[in-house]
Design brief:
This protein is an all-alpha fold. α4 packs parallel to α6 and α5 packs antiparallel against α6.
Length: about 190
């Protein structure tokens, strides 16, 4: 489980980066447009790597590490798209983030459904999915109405996602000494 402890720092750092980047998008967006693809690519790739490592560390668990695998793969693919295409238009960048948020929201719905079936706490996961999906749709509908509105919404969305990542990382770290306990419903037959 030492691997999990290492991914907590990486995941927390990615969440802090996303929230800080979102705050900059809200407060002073235009100087940031040049660095957007690089910063978004680094944050998403780090988050995806942390989630892939989490899935790998939980592979022996019966508690669906596939969710982390899918979410990590999504984040790495979108992060790589930004890192490999650093000369993208701002409209394309906002649309890519909108699609990423919508896909991440759908993955959270999947996770909430799995938690509901297992009779575990599923409402926070569902709420996270609803907010991510809503931000994805709002971002997808607004970039044509003005870049400043798109950047503002992008900033607010990134602040939310960064805060969500930080809260979940800290919650898991403080509540469970073993990450498998996070998925344990008290049934000893799982292992």
């Amino acid at each position: 489980m030492k691997l999990f402890r290492g991914t907590q720092g990486l995941t927390l750092l990615a969440g802090v980066g996303m929230a800080a980047f979102g705050l900059i998008c809200v407060l002073n967006p235009y100087p940031l447009t040049v660095l957007f693809p690089l910063a978004a690519g680094i944050c998403l790739s780090a988050l995806g790597l942390g989630e892939l490592l989490m899935a790998w560390s939980l592979k022996r668990s019966a508690r669906d590490p596939g969710h982390f695998l899918l979410q990590g793969a999504l984040n790495i693919v979108v992060g790589a798209a930004f890192l490999l295409n650093r000369q993208v238009s701002l409209l394309f960048a906002v649309m890519l983030v909108a699609l990423w948020m919508a896909a991440a929201g759908m993955l959270r719905f999947y996770r909430a459904f799995r938690l509901w079936k297992a009779q575990e706490r599923w409402l926070p996961t569902l709420a996270d999915g609803v907010v991510k999906l809503a931000f994805g749709f709002v971002l997808a509908l607004h970039p044509s109405k003005g870049i400043s509105a798109g950047l503002f919404l992008l900033g607010v969305g990134l602040i939310f996602v960064g805060a969500s990542v930080m809260v979940s990382t800290i919650f898991v770290a403080k509540t469970f000494s073993n990450p498998d306990d996070f998925f344990d419903d008290g049934n000893e037959e799982d292992f």
